[in-house]
Write a structure and sequence with these properties.
This protein has 243 residues and is mainly β. The chain has a single domain, classed as Porin, CATH 2.40.160. 9% of the residues lie in helices and 52% in strands. It is built from 2 helices and 14 strands; from the N terminus they run αβββββββββββββαβ. The strands form 2 sheets. The protein has a 12-stranded antiparallel β-barrel. A two-stranded antiparallel ribbon has the order 2-3. Strand 8 and strand 9 form a beta hairpin. The chain is globular, with a radius of gyration of 18 Å. The two termini are 29 Å apart.
Length: 243
């Protein structure tokens, strides 16, 4: 899970990332006249985030929407059920994102955003904020980095780096693969972080629907942090509809 079960942290004042969300939000409001609305809904056998399950291996129902302006500014909201340790009383996650993303030339696209992880009605404060950036080449190759001074809900820094690629087989089927490492301060965990990888087969059928089968794997540092029942190897199947 995103926040280790044994850690309780104090509430904190608004971060610079939160202030950045406000500034970008003002810009998006000014761009609203040319805004586009999109969204998605997903049924998955397991909600896996950065290699670890967020639902103890149980299914999840997820949905989100995104408002995008002509300038590239956008705002999105996304939600899922979660299942953390009983003492957290966490049952849902809401993610709020404000950012800018646009193609910079024929080959390259860029996205920079601020993401807020929110867990309503929890017994302890699990909420935190992350700054993310992604560079995409020809729509099929990407590298991303995320940084937070309150990583995984701690008062400590963490930096997440990922590289991935899509390999189209035909118009309906593609393969996706990625590798990542999460660098974490020793105030968060005893190790310097952990690595994980995933491999997906994606079948797009009947318009907006996609069926995805993903194999996830983490290293031994992840299982040392989260436990064998949360990290390690697992298979996830998901059906998604986009609009």
């Amino acid at each position: 899970m995103k926040t280790p079960w044994f850690k309780v942290r104090d509430a904190r004042a608004p971060s610079m990332a939160t202030l950045a969300m406000t500034v970008i939000g003002i810009g998006l409001a000014a761009d609203a006249s040319a805004a586009d609305l999109s969204g998605n809904a997903t049924l998955t056998t397991d909600y896996v985030w950065r290699g670890s399950t967020q639902t103890q291996g149980d299914p999840a129902v997820q949905a989100g929407f995104k408002v995008s302006g002509a300038s590239g500014l956008y705002a999105s909201a996304w939600g899922s059920n979660v299942k953390f340790a009983p003492e957290t009383h966490a049952s849902s996650e809401l993610d709020f994102t404000i950012g800018w993303g646009k193609r910079v030339n024929e080959d390259w696209a860029m996205d920079i955003n601020v993401l807020r992880y929110q867990y309503p009605s929890t017994a302890i404060d699990l909420n935190w904020t992350e700054l993310n950036g992604t560079l995409t080449y020809r729509d099929n190759y990407w590298a991303s980095v995320g940084h937070s001074n309150e990583a995984l809900g701690y008062d400590a820094a963490g930096t997440y780096v990922q590289a991935g690629a899509k390999f189209p087989v035909n118009e309906a089927f593609r393969i996706e693969a990625s590798v990542a490492h999460y660098f974490l301060d020793d105030e968060v965990v005893a190790t310097e972080g952990y690595s994980h990888a995933q491999l997906s087969g994606v079948w797009a059928f009947k318009g907006p629907f996609e069926l995805r089968l993903t194999v996830h794997a983490t290293d031994s540092d992840a299982t040392a942090i989260f436990g064998d029942d949360v990290a390690g190897s697992r298979v996830e199947a998901a059906l998604q509809a986009s609009f």
